[in-house]
Specification:
Blueprint lengths: L1 H12 L2 H22 L10 H31 L2 H7 L4 H31 L6 H28 L3 H18 L11 H7 L3 H7 L2 H4 L7 H32 L1
GO molecular function, one term: ABC-type transporter activity
Keywords: Membrane, Transmembrane, Transmembrane helix
Main location: membrane
Length: 251
């Protein structure tokens, strides 16, 4: 398994769009926002960077899960590469799992670089090890659901050329409704109500309270994310089975 994860990780890091959007783009946005608005004080010794860190983290995760991952899976499915691997007795479940784990590693790398830049340049305050662990557990849970959503995109949109614009459109819509471009509290009430049903909204806006030690678990996020997890897994399973049945009929 370790070998498969390493190979998958190397393959993903060779894709320029994945590296740019997941690692460099969040840093660029962080520097632009800090330069534009300044690292103004909030309360209890916290500053703008301590809240914007979560927006920046979200900016790194969404393109990775909504663009890079779906394209990767789509390429595997539509080129029938998985059939060749199956004939070679490659464990496809292990291959898929290694893909998921490698993307979670990239998420960790993206957040880690984000954290280092925020700390070294803008004096981002770090939580205790305990609360840092709670943050990462919930971050990875959110990322897993986003990856499954990316899998659904790859199953629905079979044309790989259409997959990138579809993924980018969804990504920018999410950016707008979760407060990436404007302060979340200034969004219309209807938008905030809609976004409360989107798990990544909690990552961008509410995980801050885990970071500063006010809460260990965000229960609204857990409920929302779990519902999405069950729903997406069910839909992916149904679509995958139907595609397999159609393939068997025409073969």
């Amino acid at each position: 398994m370790a070998r498969e994860i390493l190979l998958s990780l190397k393959a993903q890091l060779r894709v320029p769009i994945a590296v740019f959007f997941s690692i460099f783009f969040p840093i660029i946005m962080m520097i632009m926002m800090m330069t534009s608005y300044g690292n103004f004080s909030l309360r209890n010794g916290y500053h703008f960077i301590d809240k914007y860190f979560f927006i920046s983290t979200t900016i790194g995760i969404l393109p990775l899960t909504l663009i890079s991952f779906p394209i990767d899976i789509n390429n595997l499915l539509e080129t029938k590469h998985y059939l060749r691997l199956k004939y070679l007795n490659v464990d496809l479940k292990k291959l898929f799992l290694s893909n998921i784990i490698s993307y979670l590693i990239i998420v960790f790398i993206s957040v880690g670089i984000n954290l280092i830049v925020g700390k070294s340049i803008y004096n981002l305050r770090l939580p205790s090890i305990e609360y840092l662990c709670y943050f990462f557990i919930q971050l990875f849970y959110c990322a897993i659901v986003l990856l499954i959503f990316g899998l659904l995109l790859s199953l629905i949109v079979s044309d790989i050329k259409a997959l990138m614009p579809v993924g980018m459109t969804i990504m920018f819509i999410l950016f707008m409704v979760i407060g990436v471009f404007v302060q979340y509290s200034s969004l219309p009430k209807i938008i905030r109500t809609i976004s409360s049903y989107i798990p990544v909204k909690y990552l961008a806006n509410d995980f801050y309270y885990i970071w500063i030690g006010q809460a260990k678990w965000n229960m609204p996020f857990f409920k929302c994310n779990t519902i999405w997890l069950i729903f997406l897994c069910l839909i992916c399973y149904i679509i995958y089975r139907r595609k397999n049945n159609v393939t068997k009929i025409f073969n």
